[in-house]
Task: structure prediction
Amino acid sequence: ARRAPRFAPRATPQYEFDAKRDAKKPASTSRASSAGEGAAADDKTFFNDASEGCVKWRDGVIHTELPPEPDRLIQSMRGQLDRLEATVAKLAKGVKTLVETSQLWANEVGNFASAFREHEAVEADLGDPLKTECVNRDYKHLAPALSSELSLFDSWTQAVHYQPAILETVLRAALQYLLQQVGAMRELLKIRDDGIRELQKLEAKLKAHHDERSSGRKETRSTFGSLTKAKQSLDEMIAQEELDVRQQRLYVGVLSRALFYSEIERVNEERRELLLEMFGELGASDLHVAQQLKEMWLRAMGEMHFDLEAEREKAKWITAWLPTTGVQ
Result:
């Protein structure tokens, strides 16, 4: 269920719809956008789901008052969607490049590990008196280090192959979903626009028949009986068209109220939640891989009896000569 409506609820809806009462007076033929704003939203036939969540949402929509100049706000929303779509599409394209690049890096690490395995085989031959005359007598000390390094490269290859999958599953999937949400909101606005256009057509048709009746005409040719040239009473036709106009105005009003009661805020809230969740999952995944890499290097350096503090000091000198990139 949604939280409390953004705009304070009234004891009764601002615009009530009563078919018997309104059938006694002509429907308004005012501008369609403002007519959509004034549509009643308390006709229960528009909400046929009796679940608790739907009932609460329906009541929120019914009691929601539209803000001043809703069309201007909706037009602003369209501009926001255009900008969001452009930047999210750029991010999705960037993630695709990241996935491809990280896959290349993972493949190169694997190729390096394979090359090192070939080198280990050569070193083994150089230390084997059955395969060479000039035997490497130090091979018995080198062999344990080579074994540790082979295990290191195997673990390294496995760890870096996680990265493309992490980027694909976390970043790319989330951004694609965000693009779909932007498209869904744009489609909802289009449905409202189509509803307004249909309302304009119905109002224009009703006005034309009101004008005919004002001129003294009693009947007109039926739209549905054009082949048989059947005629229909103008009063009957106007009564039906007034009902059609009220129903369409109700439909547009429900769409407008739903936008300002829940949908505009929903798309903003879901975008925030999605971006936070995306970076949370990315951070947790990368930390897991980083922990694996840390444990891998510490184990390998311990097996090869390195002085970790001395090697860290060397690393400081190495990184001091690296080009600056602005990253601390």
The chain has eight helices and two strands.
